[in-house]
Amino acid sequence: MATSEEIEGMIARCALGDRAAFAALYQATSSKLFGICLRILRERSEAEDALQEVYLRVWRKAESYVAGGPSPMAWLSTVTRNLAIDRLRAKAPPADELEDAPELVAKGPTPEQSAVAAGEAARIGACLGELEPDRAGAVRGAYLEGASYTELAGHYGVPLNTMRTWLRRSLIKLKECLER
Amino acid sequence: MTEQATYDEDDIALAGEYVLRLLSAEEVAGFEARLAAEPGLRLLVTEWQEGLSSLADEVEETPPAALWRRIEAAAHGADQAAGQRRGLPLWGWLTGGLAAALVAVAVFFAIDPSPAVAPTHQARIAAEDGSLTVLAALSPEGELHVIRESGGPRPGRALELWLIADGAPAPVSLGVFPEADDFRVPLPEALRAGFTGGTLAISDEPPGGSPTGAPTGDVLAAAPVQTL
Question: ipTM score here?
């Protein structure tokens, strides 16, 4: 696993047109970014197209990464989520699709398991663990599946406004925990 | 606690919703207008991006090997097109194509089918839109059997088959397709070695094949080689 500094260096060299750095960046980060695409888009071919778009954007816009902003992995994840969610919403799935979709929270480790994982993941996992399971699940669903308020409300069977109130309260608690 | 202390819970939640992409288009526009003017709010967004990003650690999945070649080709091919004349084909390997230029283009000749032997490598090279599908199988004796299942060259053009060996700087021509839709071509051992982990691609070329030894036309289809 490349360190944050190493990844930052790779991005910086991409901005200079260094192809070897681009290859190294892909090697170091593509599994995580592909996982994000796949989770949001669910179809492999869609996820592959999205990942291609992500790396082309990174290659061409590497200079837009500002050191001192988010960590390089957070920046790459943000670019990836945004592109994947754009694709997801451009497809405009019927609102009831979520009913047939796999469980929002069933996949992946529980917050407790996440907390066991090394590094920063422990922090967000532990903080989500402080929320009620449904509410933590909604945050994960929004982040990992790119679920909208409408979809989350449908999934949890609550009115849209209630969903929003829940989620906003969860975010405030989460932020407080993350800063502790 | 530093700058973010000046932001209330409403803004903390709003920044989180923004990062999660939960806001409506109207709300996003309003929030982004504020972001442009408020460094502290930008910091909140960064903190959310940071805090949430490790959630994705649990979803890692290795992308297929062929995808990297596609991305590399698109990235570097596009550089070439941008740097030179417009409409240049998207072949990323072109810039490193000197090696390929040294390889003579061999024209395929249709050979009578020989008894079937289990191939050591194979690939199904299909265009994304289904307009061209070609099967290629390499026999243990080093004979490449190519079957054009569907599609053909554009009018007045030819199809050329290329091998991109794993890690190779440039594609190597395996020859120009004859008119027959089923043919075999013997390959020298040096080329056969590149099949394991390699990629086969078909490009659109002038009659007789690429004049330069490197692909000059559109890539019509490409596929990773499967080792059997």
Answer: 0.84
